[in-house]
Structures are given as structure tokens and as C-alpha cells.
Amino acid sequence: MVVRKVGKYEIGRTVGEGTFAKVKFAQNTETGESVAMKVIDRSTIIKHKMVDQIKREISIMKLVRHPHVVRLHEVLASRTKIYIILEFITGGELFDKIVRHGRLSETESRRYFQQLIDGVDYCHCKGVYHRDLKPENLLLDSQGNLKISDFGLSASPEPGVSLLRTTCGTPNYVAPEVLSHKGYHGAVADIWSCGVILYVLMAGYLPFDEIDLTTLYSKIERADFSCPSWFPVGAKSLIHRILDPNPETRIRIEEIRSDEWFRKNYVPARHVEDEAVNLDDVNAVFDDPEDQQVSEQSGNNDMGPLVLNAFDLIILSQGLNLSALFNRGEDYVKHQTRFVSKKPAKVVLSSMEVVAQSMGYKTHIRNYKMRVEGLSASKTAHFSVILEIFEVAPSFFMVDIQKAAGDADEFLKFYKNFCSNLDDIIWNPPVETSKPRNSRTRR
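Request: output the structure for the sequence above.
Response:
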């Protein structure tokens, strides 16, 4: 396979995908450093009149340099694409950790929350308001430290502009005043989102979660939520002070930092003195693309599902008996299961999306990974499942299904109902029949 190159970077497979960009793994051939490359199609952002927004996002990320914010290295451009070179974070999304482990311990939740507050406070000091804080936009590095990413909806208003007016963000995490269309303070709205994140870390599910948006917004505007019994008194008190529907009386970051529960084992982030930030390369990429073009070398690089090698298969099978990959006991199926398909990966993904939506669930797709969520069959609790497609061999794909939130028995019912509607997708190995033994003696 010929590896595609852009300038000094060799590009690997897609590790994330958004509405207007793909994020690919890449390697600096001069230093050997691994980076994440955000690839944006120039014609797409021009068509959707997003040039100023993308330019603002890049400028903001160059401005905000903090240990708990993903670092932007440089910006490149070709005739058709813009390449944003970012720090490569190996630990995945905080969201995925919550999916794998459910609710986190008090100690771990507090540590992530402390790092989140440090990073958000630094952004605010620079006049930057994120406006889309959620676990999917919080990454973890190899040491397990939190990194804020995705500043696509962030704002950095001009001096003298106190109120923001754009309604944006992810509904479950958005502050009530953002929904009111009367203007809001970006810093105070970000604090609300941080409170929702703390709740999710400690509970394993959202404080506000309804399929119907009108009902959801009504609950957010009234701060209609309750904390689980296992929340410590200190955390419960802090969350209620953060999720205050009145932005005027909502707790501020300096008050959060002085909170007794927050301060336990608190180690403030250390960062070097602010570096001089030069935006000339950003302006040049957008204003003088011809002068800033990098060379592109195209090759056959199929960015499909992750390919499982022999080592991956052994890990997934929990031993050397690979039959365990596709033959799970009833207890295991209550939490995680798998099926295989010989259909193209895109066909499998679209079929699963259609079936999940026909069952009344919301779907969120990122690359070859899909999150299915909604209310349980009993309509009394939140239910969520993660499905991911892997390539086991050419034209042979495995779908891994994990329970993210909800009751184990609910998951079992979902799985059986879901798979019963995928008969044309799921491949079943042929049943071996024993051959009758020849009764005649061979001469």
C-alpha cells in the first residue's frame, strides 16, 4: 500500500470524522513525531460560508496553549485542502472511558474535573469561550491527563462585547440561558457544561436526557434533575451550585476553586510563560493559498474500519481460543457481544443505523463507530449502546456491541431484537454435519 504524504507528513488512517472535516493519524517524517491531522476540504467550507469560522477556530487554538488543551502545531494548505496539524492524543475520548467503565470513582472524577476547570479557566482568561464542552470533546493523553479539543463552536468576542447570542452546543450539555435567545455570558455558560460533565463522570449517565427536545429544554431551564444516592455530599452540593438555572447566581470558577470538595488533592496545572503567538501562517493559508501550498502524494490508502491483526484477535478472544470471538455465553452477552458480516462495511453501518432508528433510538456515527441511545423499553431509564465495525479479514467484518448505559437485561432484549432485523447482514458459519462412515472394509 502506497502511503499518502502531505509535505513532510505521512498520513495514516482516519481516526475521527465530523461534518466538515476528517481527522487522520499522521507522522512527521523529519522528527518521527506522531500527530493528528485535521483535513478540511476548501471548496466545502467556501460553499457553506465557513471560512471565517474555520479561520477563527485555528487562530483560537494557536492562542490557547495550556497543558489541558490540545496543542496546534501548524497549518498547511494545498490547492484543495487545509491541513491543521495537532498534538496526537493516544488515550482516546473521555466519553469512551465512561462507556467502558460506567461511572468513575470520586477520586478520578474529581481529578478530571480539576483539570477541566484549569483548562477552561485559561481559555476564559484569553477571552475564549468553548461553547461545546462534553466528554466527546475531552481527550486523554498517555498519562491519563485531560485535554480539551474541538474549538469549532468557540467564540472570542471583540473587546467591549459582553454577551454572545448564537445558540449552539450539544443539547444535553447546553446552559438554559443559551436556549433563551436573550444573550448570554460565554464563561458562565461553559461553567454549566462543566457541571453536567462532572455529573456524567460520577453517575455514568446524563442529568438531563429526553428524546423529545421540548421536554429536554424544559427540564434544563428548570434545572430539573436529582443526584444519585452514591454522590458524596460535597460533590452533590457543588453540582447544584453549578447547575443553577440563574446565570447571575451560578457559581464562578474562582468559587469552584475554593470549594472544599474540589480542593482535595488539587494540583494546579503548570505551564510555561505565554509564548508569542504569530498568526501570519494562518492568514497566509486563507488569504494567499497559492504561496502556501504543500505537495501532496496520493496513493491507495483505503480509510475503512480498523483492521484487527492477530494480536488484536487474541486480546478480544480473552485467550488463544478464537472461537470465543463469535460464541459468547449468556452472561457475557448481557454486557457485550459480537456478530460477523460479509457485507461491505458501509452497508453494515447504514443497515444498523436504519434498524436502530426504526426501533426509536437516536444514532450518532463517527467513522465506523455508532452510538445508539434513548429510553429503555420500559421508558423509565436512559439506555445506550456502542457498536463498532472491525475488519477481521478482506470482505469479513466483525461488529462489536457493548452496553454503555442501562440494565443488562434491557441490553439482552435490545440485542436480540436488533439482530432479528439484520438477518440479511449477519453471517452465520455453515453447520458442519458428520459424514456417515463407510461400512465396507477398504481392501
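The mean pLDDT is 82.
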